[in-house]
Amino acid sequence: MALNKTWNQHVVKKENKSLVLNVIQSSSPISRADIASITGLNKGTVSSQVTELIDEHLIYESGPGKSSGGRRPVMLLFNKIAGYSIGIDLGVNYILGLLTDLEGNICKENYIKIKDLSFDEIMEKLYEVIDSLIASVPSSPYGIIGIGIGVPGTVDNNGNILLAPNLKWKNIHLKEILEEKYHIPIVIENEANGGAHGERKFGIGMDTKHIVYVSIGIGIGVGLILNGELYKGNNGFSGELGHMTIDINGKDCRCGSKGCWELYASEQALDDYAAQLKLTSLSEEEISLESLLSLAEKGE
Ligand SMILES: [Zn+2]
């Protein structure tokens, strides 16, 4: 019984603390009194949680804020540079790496082009991008708190890549590989799911509960937000939508199926059409989205 009681107190304390931190994160700058009235916690509880959060460098006090009369309260702010995180968009023909603060503001970017590389070569490039971002992180109490990676394929709930046809990857335990190397939390997600989540949190989908996010690059991915939640389906449904058959007598696809959507509407499809039609002065190797766009801008 006693153990149980202590355990419950411990859980409640932790929940209160995270509640207080969440309110400061979303409504900073904010006074202790306003935190108490928003959360319904009593002032003593708020005060002791705030002290702990200040000691942990997750929040800080700033000068006095507006007061409705009487003494002006001290305001509390979220310390967005208590740590940093790394986000990677692992594309078929590029790797984009970002260093962000704890509010998701971009502090540093590293973009490299890749083409037709083996698994080992891609991993080497991925490490280079991650290492360069780690090397650039300013000193902070928590350092890099995690790495999130979007990949062009189906990902199961354990962060294993089941199939990434355009990279020719199958059953890659990317989360495990990276956790062993970097010893920090790693999140692997389908890139279109990641994009949908990003739009929901920071972009065009902030005010809506339902989003269909279509990511068109070398392949096609689709991420769905339904009722405010990322729809995961059975083990990574979204990576498969680009491989939905739209022409049963169509061309062969790298996924083993025929007539997939992305064979007709992706960046790769555009490059292929341009090469077939010999519309441009570019050689086949020179054709890319960028080179076609720049020709189009010149009126070709
Ligand atoms: Zn396919």
Describe the protein in words.
With 300 residues, the protein is of the alpha+beta class. The chain folds into three domains: 2-78, Winged helix-like DNA-binding domain superfamily/Winged helix DNA-binding domain (Arc Repressor Mutant, subunit A, Orthogonal Bundle), CATH 1.10.10.10; 84-194, ATPase, nucleotide binding domain (Nucleotidyltransferase, domain 5), CATH 3.30.420; 268-297, no CATH class. The chain has nine helices and 14 strands. The chain has helices at residues 2-27, 32-39, 43-55, 119-135, 174-182, 191-202, 262-265, 267-277, 289-297, and strands at 30-31, 59-64, 74-78, 84-90, 94-101, 106-113, 144-151, 154-155, 161-164, 169-172, 186-190, 211-216, 220-226, 229-230. The strands form four sheets. A five-stranded mixed β-sheet has the order 6-5-4-7-11. Strands 1-3-2 form a three-stranded antiparallel β-sheet. Helix 1 packs across helix 3 (43-55) and helix 2 (32-39) packs across helix 3. The model has no long low-confidence stretch (mean pLDDT 90). Zinc ion binds at residues 243, 253, 255, 257, 260. Zinc ion is lined by residues 243, 253, 255, 257, 260. It holds the Pfam family HTH_24. Belongs to the ROK (NagC/XylR) family. It comes from Paracerasibacillus soli.
Order of helices and strands: HEHHEEEEEHEEEEHEHEEEHHH
- CATH homologous superfamily name of the largest domain? ATPase, nucleotide binding domain
The main pleated sheet reads as: 5 strands, mixed
Indicate the CATH architecture of the largest domain: 2-Layer Sandwich
Total beta-strand segments = 14
| Strand line-up in the sheet with most strands | 6-5-4-7-11
| SS class | alpha+beta
Domain unit count: 3
Shape: elongated
What Rg, in angstroms, do the CA atoms define? Answer: 24 Å
Instruction: Give the proportion of residues in helices.
Output: 25-40%
Residue-averaged pLDDT: 90
The N- to C-terminal Cα distance equals 79 Å
Poorly predicted regions are: none
What's the number of helices? 9
Please identify the top-level CATH class of the largest domain: Alpha Beta
CATH topology description of the largest domain: Nucleotidyltransferase, domain 5
Beta-strand fraction estimate: 15-25%
Question: What ions, cofactors and ligands are bound?
Answer: zinc ion
